[in-house]
Amino acid sequence: MKTDNVKREREQRPAGRGIRQSMSGLHIWAGLLMGWILYAMFLTGTVSYFKDELSQWMRPELAHQAELPDPALVAQRVADELGAIAPGSPQWSMRLPDGRTNSVYAFWRTAGAEGGRRAFGEAAFDPATGGKVTARETLGGDFFYRFHFQFHYMPVLWGRWIAGAAAMFMLVAIVSGVITHKKIFIDFFTFRGGKGQRSWLDAHNALSVFGLPFHAMITYTGLVTLMALYMPWGERTAITTPAERQQLSAELNAFIQPGKPSGQAAPLASVADMVRQAQERWGQDAVGRVTATNSGDSTARVAVARGEAGRVSMSPQYMLFDGPTGRLLETREGVGAAAETRGVLYALHLGRFSDTVTRWLYFLVSLMGTAMVGTGLVMWTVKRRQKLADPEQPHIGFRIVERLNIASIAGLSVAMTAFLWGNRLLPAGLAERGAWEIHLFFAVWALTLAHAVLRPARTAWIEQLWAAAALLALLPVLNAVTTDRPLWHSVTEADWVFAGMDLMCLSLAALHAVLALRTARHRPKPRTVPAKGRGGVIGGALEEGRS
Amino acid sequence: MMHLLSFVLCLAAFAALALATERQQHDLFGRPLSPAATRLLRVAGTGVMLLALGVLLDWQGWGLGLVMFSGHTSLAAGVVFCAAIGLASARRRGKPAAISPASRRV
């Protein structure tokens, strides 16, 4: 009774219809056109919150690190090793190990590679010995991270422009979506189950509204991370001399730039002592990165930078030392207001300041965002399927959207899991092994598209969801067989990276199995109220999952 | 521990706010609550949520506190939403006669 009254009341309110309808159109088409790319960006970005853990899992040769090694000693060991493998390097930089990493990632510029071209080297080092780690060649979690904003098989800049365009579409979709959604507060907790399009809409609304602060933040800050690429004009006008460029760089990051080397050899003073000074200032585990320029030369400089944990800003804070003497030259702990704004927005996007609980919150709400994009895409077909003149022979546009949905949602789960299978199964000696893991990911993804095109849509959904569930469920088994770190072992060793990964795979397998079962069990209901003038669909109002 | 405290407060807050909506009252009690009770639920929900925010701000300051609050509220709203769906469907299953053909209509 009461709900009927409410319904009638709502129907009698035509106010604001015009703008809502045009915003709805904008929302639908902005969401659809970039939806498949956005879904992939959302999902790969979501798992990137655990990129360090993924990287650990993908290098099972590196032992679980029960205790954090002394950062000062580690920095000294790796600095010595870098001095040996990259002598005279104009710049090298290492990320010290923290609770989430068990190796030291470092990169360096190669000496004598001048003339516009900069040659880089990079490697992971063992904190205990300082030597390069001998693990299988893999990009690890960094593949998903890089794919998230620059894709693959294309120049990096193209990828970043596409990601930026997608983010702009997302921003448009968010704003127009909020305007379209008439009753955010009244319908905040509304879910009408078993009602086809209405249920999808309610689920889509809930996923969007609950995570709205996150979705808006992550899209906007995503654009901010690459704003210097998208809008370079201000910077180009204001910053013209090399000195100004150096100043700008110092506001944005702790990678100090090399000056002109003198050519006079001078060994680097104790890096461990410099790290200890930084520890005294910021705390035992608060040192994040050590960068050195012209090491081995009398003009050498070393910057010891503060880590990102616990501070919501990516703005650089570092202590600058004179290389040969180890004397403290300068301590930078603040940047200008504009740079700090960027630093905070950048940090919000990456979430690297998070403790474990906050990281999980980031992950879960980001997963809601992924599901928001996914439900939006599926809804496009659910809504239109009922209006098709002949549901057995949908028009070409409908079929394209339907098949792309299958491959980009269910297929991506299959491909991402296949990437992890490749990590365990590709032979260690394979040339370009890391690249082949990635080729495998794309090959499997392409196969899911082919499968989606060749099979009836409903069957394709069910088969791909089951394939993802099976691959995910069997990944812990594969891990137990191919490594000496099975689940029971990691639990007793309190190795939560490996145990967490196995348990996560099992939960995601369950999620995919539930989706597969629900799709399989779904029987399109005939319409209870025959719609006039739609002879073709009477008794056959078909819903999602039925081809 | 502070995470747990704040999250539980957010859960309670959203539960109260959900019960203050007409649809949930209809689904869970079969009748609307009195306007006074609804207003009380709304005020209590808002107050408890502000309390959760206060707990986090006091613990972590503005930067991290607001980030964590955003995460806690998003997740708590999701949990309350799923719980409401579960309760409503359990109630419907318990009373099959309550489903009239009219209420199933799209």
Provide a descriptive summary of the structure in words.
The complex is a heterodimer of chains A (547) and B (106). Chain A is built from 20 helices and seven strands. Chain A is an alpha+beta fold. Among the domains of chain A are: 71-137 and 253-336, no CATH class; 386-547, no CATH class. A seven-stranded antiparallel beta sheet of chain A has the order 3-2-1-4-5-6-7, with helices on one face. In chain A, α3 runs parallel beside α16, α15 packs antiparallel against α16 and α17 runs antiparallel to α18 (457-482). Chain A is globular. Chain A starts with a helix and ends in a 26-residue tail after the last helix. Mean pLDDT of chain A is 87; it is low at 527-547. Chain B is mostly helical. Chain B has one domain (2-104). Chain B has helices spanning 2-19, 22-29, 35-94. Chain B is elongated and about 50 Å long. The termini of chain B are far apart. The model of chain B is unreliable at 97-106 (pLDDT under 50). Chain A binds chain B through residues 2-3, 6, 186-191, 193-198, 206, 209-211, 213-214, 217, 310-313, 344, 348, 351, 353-354, 357-358, 361-362, 364-365, 368, 527-529, and chain B through 3, 17-18, 21-24, 26, 31-32, 63-64, 67-68, 70-75, 77-78, 80-81, 84-85, 89, 101, 104-106.
